């Protein structure tokens, strides 16, 4: 079993990477160093995570002609934020990310969300009532600007994040450079079977974020199901003498899904990549997939009149109003 997916460009993308969302400044540099020392060759970043400069410090320390790792050994992904969708903002935004990450190019650059916010320096521009100020730049125009980055050698590949199947096809209808990857929330409670098939049919690799159910996020609901305590998964963990997290990551890799678990704990970082020394049976893969309940943990919310509501659901390009 390979430990990488092959993109439509021919480039290999490691199946397990380190996610850096919610990794606090002050901790993320060490997390990236531990990950690279543990054998990770894939780091997933984004400017909105507020820690790319520190990730860059780790990359600078670990990669180079006189270091044990060369730049080309490590696959680095970043993303274009919602306030930067205007075609004129795409290249400057990427250049800022490259500077912060201390890199000359990215292996993969994604449009973080299909919907745009108002241009400017505030990442979450708001009206007086606290709701987001939207912008209505068509993501197809943004895509054309993304394609130019490939031509300039600033990025090796481009892709999408949080787009639904209809929006993927919308991009494909105009693309001269096709998206290589779709990054979405994906775990046994949101198995994304239809969307994964849709991506495969169109030559996109899927990357799963929040693959362990994102138990540390701020807007956790007290009644939500806890993925790592799911009996079917804990039984498999016992059988294979692995952790529930390792079972979930292995399930994804055997489906060919790239997985980017986040951790700043050395033992967990090491554990999360130790998944290639055992293989789940086909019926066990099916049993984990059958846990799907369409449960989306990651829906950005704001509080309006004391109640949490989806933050971006009013935008015409909001992806989760469609079935998949």
Automatic annotation (TrEMBL):
GO cellular component: apical plasma membrane; cytosol
Enzyme Commission no: 1.1.1.2
Chain sites annotated for binding substrate: 112
Highest taxon of the lineage: Eukaryota
Subcellular location: Apical cell membrane; Cytoplasm, Cytosol
Domain spans labelled NADP-dependent oxidoreductase: 17-292
Record key words, sorted: Cell membrane, Cytoplasm, Membrane, NADP, Oxidoreductase
Catalytic reaction(s) noted: a primary alcohol + NADP(+) = an aldehyde + NADPH + H(+); S-nitroso-CoA + NADPH + H(+) = sulfinamide-CoA + NADP(+); S-nitrosoglutathione + NADPH + H(+) = S-(hydroxysulfenamide)glutathione + NADP(+)
Family classification: Belongs to the aldo/keto reductase family.
Protein name (record): alcohol dehydrogenase (NADP(+))
Provenance organism: Chanos chanos
């Amino acid at each position: 079993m390979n430990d990488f997916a092959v993109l439509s460009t021919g480039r290999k993308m490691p199946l397990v990477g380190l996610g850096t969302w919610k990794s606090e400044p002050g901790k993320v540099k060490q997390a990236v160093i531990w990950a690279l020392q543990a054998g990770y060759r894939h780091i997933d970043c984004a400017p909105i995570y507020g820690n790319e400069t520190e990730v860059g410090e780790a990359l600078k320390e670990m990669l180079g002609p006189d270091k044990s790792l060369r730049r080309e050994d490590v696959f680095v992904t970043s993303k274009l934020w919602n306030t930067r969708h205007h075609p004129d903002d795409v290249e400057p935004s990427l250049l800022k990310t490259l500077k912060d990450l201390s890199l000359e190019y990215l292996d993969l650059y994604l449009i973080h969300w299909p919907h745009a916010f108002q241009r400017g320096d505030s990442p979450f521009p708001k009206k007086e009532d606290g709701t987001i100020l939207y912008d209505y730049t068509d993501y197809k125009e943004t895509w054309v600007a993304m394609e130019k980055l490939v031509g300039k050698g600033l990025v090796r590949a481009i892709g999408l994040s949080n787009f639904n199947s209809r929006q993927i096809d919308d991009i494909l209808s105009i693309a001269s450079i096709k998206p290589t990857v779709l990054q979405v929330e994906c775990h046994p409670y949101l198995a994304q079977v239809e969307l994964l098939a849709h991506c495969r049919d169109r030559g996109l690799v899927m990357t799963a974020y929040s693959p362990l159910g994102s138990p540390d996020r701020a807007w956790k609901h007290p009644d939500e199901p806890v993925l790592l305590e799911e009996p079917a998964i804990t039984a498999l963990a016992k059988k294979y003498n692995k952790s529930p997290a390792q079972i979930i990551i292995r399930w994804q890799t055997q489906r060919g899904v790239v997985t980017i678990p986040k951790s700043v704990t050395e033992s967990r970082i090491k554990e999360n990549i130790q998944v290639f020394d055992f293989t789940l049976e086909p019926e066990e893969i099916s049993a984990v997939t059958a846990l799907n309940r369409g449960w989306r943990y990651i829906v950005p919310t704001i509080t309006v009149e004391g109640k949490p509501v989806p933050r971006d659901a009013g935008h015409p390009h909001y992806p989760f109003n469609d079935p998949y």
